[in-house]
Amino acid sequence: MKSLIGLLLFFCSSLAFADISVTHARAAATAxxxxxxGAYLDISASENAKLVGVESPVARKVMIHVxxxxxxxxxxxxxxxxxxxxGKTVSLSExxxxxxxxxxxxxLVSGDTVPLRLTFDQDGKQIVLNVxxxxxxxxxDMH
Length: 143
Ligand SMILES: [Cu+2]
Known about the structure:
Blueprint: H1 2-15, E1 20-29, E2 36-45, E3 49-55, E4 59-70, E5 73-79, E6 82-84, E7 89-92, E8 98-104, E9 113-122, E10 125-138
Parallel strand pairs: 1-10
Antiparallel strand pairs: 1-2, 2-7, 2-8, 3-6, 3-9, 4-5, 4-8, 9-10
Bound molecules: copper (II) ion.
């Protein structure tokens, strides 16, 4: 009986919800009239995963931006997916990779929370996480 339970536990844990965690979700406050805003967070997963989509009710579209060096100049490039290697924390932060909120509907004000819906692909399975990004300070507008 004991071994059966052990087997079941093993089986269940291998089928358990993939644990992807998103922490430190935050967004930069924007000035009136500013049409884009940055959002940042840390993502980690126990199994390889891919961030395949982000949506937010405050923006028409959310893009994943990476920074690359080109001829000594930092350039922003949008990517469709972002790899989250197992056991590693991928940080999207000010001055680095970030989420770009495009065509924001109203200014992001310090203290507000921006809902983000993150879609991941893990081994062909779709996992959706909803997080709230706390709006803080004035962000640097790199656009
Ligand atoms: Cu950007």
